[in-house]
Structure prediction request, 118 residues.
Amino acid sequence: MKKTILLVDDDRLIRRAIARFLKLGGWNVIEAENEHDAARIIEGIDSQIPDVVLTDLDLRSGGSGLHVVGAAQVNGIPVALMSGDFVGGRPAGVLCFDKPLEISAVTRQLDELMMGAR
Prediction:
């Protein structure tokens, strides 16, 4: 069975590039561009519930990646953050990736995060 990831990033070009690499790594990718769309997916309203969530920290198109993290955690879904600038530090207990991403390391660590949650 394919692993499913919810990828949340407001920049369509970045989101599509990351999605392409995740798909090559064997992931089924569900995309969202803002906090509202991500919440609907996390709650299983619009699609299947993902196995793991990867969200950008700064969602200029609507909301915050920290809200996405909270929604995923409340629903028991492992979650990771990515950002080009973790101003104010990295949130405790959340896997964080610096942009630009090193995709092989990201996919390996997301696999580990997902497996640790089972």
Remarks:
- The helical segments are 12-24, 35-42, 65-74, 103-117.
- The chain is about 40% helix and 20% strand.
